[in-house]
Amino acid sequence: MGKIRVLDVTLRDGGIVNDFKFGEENMCKILSAVEDSGVDFIELGYIEKNTGTVRGRSQFINEKVISEYLLKNKRPGVTYAAMFDYGKFDVDTLGERRDSGIDAIRFAFHKRNFHDVKPIYEKLIAKGYEVYMQPMVTLHYSDEELEELLRMANGLSIKGIYFVDTFGQMHNEDIMRLTEFFDGRLRPDIALGFHAHNNIQMAFSNAIAFLQYPTGRDKLIDSSIMGMGRGAGNLNTELILQYLNKYYGSNYDNLPLLKIMDTVLSKIKAENPWGYSAEYYLSSANDCSPIYSAYYYKKHMLPIERINELLKMVEGENRISFKKSYAEEIYRKYNAENSVDDTAVIDTVSKWFKGKKVCVIAPGKSLVWQKDKVEKAVESADITVSLNCSAFNSKVILITREEAFSVIPIEDKDFIVTSNVNCESDNRTYIIDYLKWISIIDDVTLDSAGYVALNLLIKLGASKILLAGFDGFSSDINGNYFSSELKRPVTVDQLDTKNRMFADFIKEKSRQTDIEFVTDSIYAKNF
């Protein structure tokens, strides 16, 4: 049996979770913990010319700053690596390997680029680095394409090649097939590696299947502390080390990793969660990048069945690499499928709002602790509209989300419903065209009820708009809504974006009509 070595990717793959913003102190703590555990390879981060930085992040502008600010003292017996992706770093600017710098480069590419990567590998090898080949989304290669890829690998002086479960789709059967396929065609001196993702909770099981395949070839297994990684995350370093200690006679020390989980990574995970979830399962089931499902779930806060339908619309090469403009295009196309001519409806509801003082109630928690203010506003208004909820006996409710429509009692209420919601029009339900009343800013679709309500009321000539329950988003999901049934998780970056965009939107709308905040609001600070 060949050697089995573990490559920890916490600082690189894990860094995708928090935009690589570990901070210099935490980066050093993580590095030291992984070194103390006895892990064989440590990947220190990405090298990327456009988004890389000098220090404080594990996405670096070049290889020199890695040894200057992070890799200050190398441990004997440890191989230190960095990764870059095709098209994101100019290999000609990479310096020669130095004793004080990184030892290895892992170069990753998609299938569409694999005919162009050989010269890059040759340059990396010529510069003295240990070089490892990372063909992403390996399941997308046909057997013929894999044959060609492995012939290229055999013609290069690389140290190893991986098969990569980019979308977390593989089962044990896939692992055994690919391991046998690669092992039977590679030069004996080329190590074989496996990089897992945990979308269907198979990362650990697949790693064991990979390790148990009988071969004299050296093997590399990627993992990260606490499974830290984008979306569903990766194979856990602490789990695979324990398994290797128990069944393969290894002598790794998990305690330093457990300490770093407790003191550093648990705090990061609280703000930037990762791990198995329904939306990441769906990305695997639909054979596309998990960024799409995360984007639809967190940005548009969609129910899981809608996410599944949207993922089925992602086509071709777009499945492999997330493009926000494409995701938004699909989202608008999906929601426009039930477009309606709402001329007659608008003629009717305009009579409710034209020249009127309108109180608009959003489902913020301030409805509870500033109830008296809301009651006074409702009393002073000519008409009250609640958004995706029933509050303060509103007689008009604006619905933009299907799950909200299904739970609100319909007695003695008029509903204004956007056409993306599946419902039938009747004498108390008025359907308005989705695309007509949303906002699109910088190619981002803004279709929450607040945007639709203000666009509608201003267009229909409301004289004054009172806003209640428009609290703004907090990282504490229990503090965002007056009802626990409405709460959705949101990251710090997401809430900052949501708050900023809606604050800018309200400020712009205030130039068109008189808008007043009834309850405390983040949006009112720059109003």
Task: Give a description of the structure.
This protein has 527 residues and is α/β, with parallel strands linked by helices. 36% of the residues lie in helices and 16% in strands. Strands 1-2-4-5-6-7-8-9 form an 8-stranded parallel beta barrel, surrounded by 5 helices. Strand 5 (104-109), helix 3 and strand 6 form a beta-alpha-beta unit. The longest helix has 18 residues, at 492-509. It is elongated. The model has no long low-confidence stretch (mean pLDDT 92).
Tally of DSSP helical segments: 19
What is the CA-atom radius of gyration, in angstroms? 27 Å
Number of strands: 18
Shape: elongated
Largest sheet: 8 strands, parallel, barrel
Low-pLDDT segments, ≥5 res: none
List keywords for this structure.
8-stranded parallel β-barrel; alpha/beta; 19 helices; 527 residues; 18 strands; 7-stranded parallel sheet
Topology:
Elements: E1 4-8, H1 24-37, E2 41-47, E3 59-60, H2 64-69, E4 79-85, E5 104-109, H3 118-126, E6 130-135, H4 143-154, E7 160-164, H5 172-183, E8 191-195, H6 203-212, E9 219-223, H7 237-248, H8 255-271, H9 278-285, H10 290-299, H11 304-311, H12 324-335, H13 343-353, E10 357-361, H14 366-369, H15 371-380, E11 383-387, E12 396-399, H16 402-405, E13 414-418, E14 429-432, H17 434-437, E15 439-441, E16 444-446, H18 449-459, E17 464-468, H19 492-509, E18 514-517
